[in-house]
Write a structure and sequence with these properties.
The complex is a heterodimer of chains A (139) and B (75).
Chain A lengths: L2 H30 L8 H25 L9 H30 L4 H29 L2
Chain B lengths: L7 E2 L1 H7 L5 H8 L3 H8 L7 H11 L3 H4 E2 L7
Antiparallel strand pairs in B: 1-2
Helix pairs in contact in B: 2-3
The chains are: A mainly alpha (139), B mainly alpha (75).
Chain lengths: 139, 75
Amino acid sequence: MSYDEKGTWAYLVASAGAYLVYLAIVGDRLAHTPAEQVVYVSVLLWTSAASVLASVVVRTLIETARPSDSRKSDVRDKEINRFGEYASRWFIVAGAGAALIMAMVKVDYFWIANVIYLGFVLWAVVGSAVKLVAYRRGL
Amino acid sequence: MTKPTKITNSIRALRFSRGELTQAQLADRIGVTRQTVIAIEQGRYSPSLEMAFQIARVFKVPLDEVFQYPDEELS
């Protein structure tokens, strides 16, 4: 497994894990409070920051357990990265489009922020998954 | 394991016929990771034309001794 592939695994685990934690916390609050009163901003910011930190930690742990021959990206790593970004960019577009429509019809900020966050998470998770499939099965 | 390319190659055989050149050594000579050499050997990655020439140059053979493409696909 190349250094970049390990990094993709770490990013996938950290992104999905952080979002699941966010969903668990905010989902629980949403079950007991109206959406417009749910305190979500601090949880969103903390889980986003934790996702970045977790990505670094997981990558370091994988690298410690199974050191890579080289830490340089080569042409295949770059092609796979481009392929994954290209395949998953639609989630960013869909999230932004949905947020725009929701703002136009005056949906509560809570839902607008969450649809944008979901778009970012899907971009990260689907993009990473596509890259990992490309690493294993080929471009 | 699926093979997304119809191009086949003789890199593995050439490595052994050239004094047991390792995947890591070949990777180092053409400036890629060992995983990329493995992917090329297994038909999971088609190298660029430039990289294909670099590989052929390492083995000092013509390009079509390293990479082959089935005849029926040309017609």
